[in-house]
Design goal:
Length: 506
């Protein structure tokens, strides 16, 4: 019989979530480094370089890889011979660990979890509660797998109750092609097959915690090893997903996924439930075991494990003065062009946009200081700063969530441009084209690198919204790419289309 102390579990959970906030798993980083070496798309290669360089900066500085520090997901296998020295419930212990991790003064993590999700949506302020899955298994230890899962990738999860005769691979490839870039590729695709709807989703999520080892599987296949059906599916899906040409950040390229994971489970004769869940470029997970000897110990990876990739702005990038920019100035910007932004811009994401649009609909004035005339808005919810920082990691959020507000923002505020990540939908592109505005993209997964370009940050409206407040940033050489130009041309349509054709031609 093993006794696990309450404080040991709490401390281990807290340490684990801090650890994964700034250390990518070594296997993912090395797989991404291999993808960088192989990549032929200039835009995708630049995006991967930013992600890799950002990862190293975070490892050195112990700051979050991504501003979306994720919702806490915890899988526990508890041995039947384990007893607890605790006065808190299991869920209470885990949530206390999450609370300590996300409010750690030396590395504050963004609080993104909202209670009353279909109502008032009130921030819990400490990222609790976690999503917890528990199994009772033989043994005398507690095995814990945990992940910090960002909203951009979670929102792209898909499920289907297929007929047994349906083509499972066809559905998966079609679904991935419809995901766009909001999940921040290159990443990992988790697939769950069988069981019931909730079991398939759980399998897909848990599969993402397994090691990146697709290259070893490819080698085994080439050596004539007999593969299981899930292993065969992994190889087929890996090839076909990358053949879509989506590429890093959806810009078009050779690598969309660095691995595909498949877990299956017996299912009803009438059923074929299938779920897919992507893991983004901010892949964050770890595993530890408690055996009664104390809290878990996490060994930092060596900096030598990171690929020797750095990032600097292209010498051909256009420097833009945001403080003197006019509507006429953006008319000759072209899709795919790299820019370096200098000056002041405003921020705003979901909650702020809703308030702005509701205020305008009432014919009321926007808060003092919120003037979008000839300005840009950056879709971001930053991490709180620590000593010496003007702002914490501040990468872009998925722009498509703001599509429904774009027409009003461009028509009624004088806004001339937006900055986010991933593609814009047809409604937003039509509004951009009509008002001859532009949409710029920053690299998702490069939040700390971007934050280093923000010299000053001031909350100017809706302070009570926390990370969703409106800030004014003063930036110096903030790297972005023109995603949609004034003609409505989108790099997220042209890039993958081009690279899909090139890949098919071999």
């Amino acid at each position: 019989m093993t006794t696990i102390k309450q404080d040991d579990l709490i401390q281990s959970i807290a340490d684990a979530f801090q650890f994964i906030s700034y250390y990518h798993p070594k296997d993912y980083i090395q797989a991404l480094g291999a993808a960088y070496d192989m990549e032929q798309s200039k835009a995708a290669k630049d995006a991967i370089a930013q992600i890799l360089y950002n990862s190293r900066l975070c490892a050195e500085g112990h700051r979050p890889i991504c501003q979306d520090t994720g919702i806490a997901v915890v899988f526990l296998d508890i041995g039947m011979q384990v007893q607890w020295d605790a006065n808190m419930s299991l869920d209470e212990m885990i949530n206390e660990g999450v609370r300590r991790a996300y409010t750690h003064p030396d590395n504050v993590l963004r609080a993104s979890v909202l209670s009353d999700p279909a109502g008032a949506r009130i921030n819990t302020k400490d990222n609790t509660p976690a999503v917890i899955h528990t199994r009772i298994v033989p043994g005398d230890k507690v095995s814990v797998k945990l992940a910090a899962k960002g909203g951009g990738s979670e929102n792209k999860a898909k499920f289907a109750a297929l007929n047994p005769s349906d083509d499972l691979v066809e559905w998966i490839i079609k679904s991935v092609s419809e995901m766009g870039a909001g999940w921040c590729p290159p990443g990992i695709m988790g697939v769950g097959i069988g069981g019931t709807p909730e079991k398939a989703m759980l399998l897909a999520k848990e599969s993402l915690l397994e090691p990146v080892n697709i290259q070893e599987l490819i080698q085994r296949s080439q050596n004539g090893a007999e593969l299981s059906r899930p292993e065969q599916l992994r190889l087929e899906l890996y090839e076909k997903i990358n053949a879509l040409g989506v590429g890093a950040q959806g810009l078009g390229g050779l690598t969309t996924v660095v691995d595909v994971k498949v877990l299956d489970y017996p299912t009803h004769a009438a059923s074929l439930p299938v779920a897919i869940i992507p893991n983004c470029a901010a892949t964050r997970h770890t595993h530890f075991v408690l055996d009664g000897s104390g809290p878990a110990v996490f060994t930092p990876p060596a900096l030598e494990d990171w690929p020797a990739v750095t990032w600097t702005a292209s010498p051909t990038a256009r420097r833009v003065d945001l403080d003197s920019l006019t509507h006429e100035d953006v008319q000759n910007w072209k899709t795919g062009e790299q820019l370096l932004l200098n000056g002041k811009l405003l921020t705003g994401r979901d909650a702020a946009h809703k308030r702005i649009v509701d205020t305008l609909a009432k014919g009321e004035s926007l808060p003092e200081g919120v003037n979008f005339k000839n300005r840009f808005i950056y879709y971001v919810g930053p991490v709180d700063p620590i000593a010496g920082e003007s702002v914490g990691p501040a990468g872009p959020t998925t722009a498509t969530r703001m599509d429904k507000y774009t027409k009003t923002m461009l028509a009624e505020t004088g806004l001339i441009g937006m900055i986010g990540k991933a593609e814009r939908g047809p409604i937003a592109i039509e509004a951009i084209k009509k008002h001859r505005a532009v949409y710029l993209i920053a690299v998702g997964g490069a939040a700390y690198l971007i934050a280093k370009a923000i010299e000053k940050s001031t909350v100017i409206a809706y302070k009570e919204l926390g990370m969703e407040a409106i800030y004014e940033f003063e930036v110096k050489d903030m790297p972005v790419t023109v995603g949609v130009d004034v003609r409505g041309d989108s790099v997220h349509l042209s890039g993958p289309k081009k690279w899909s054709k090139l890949i098919r031609k071999g």
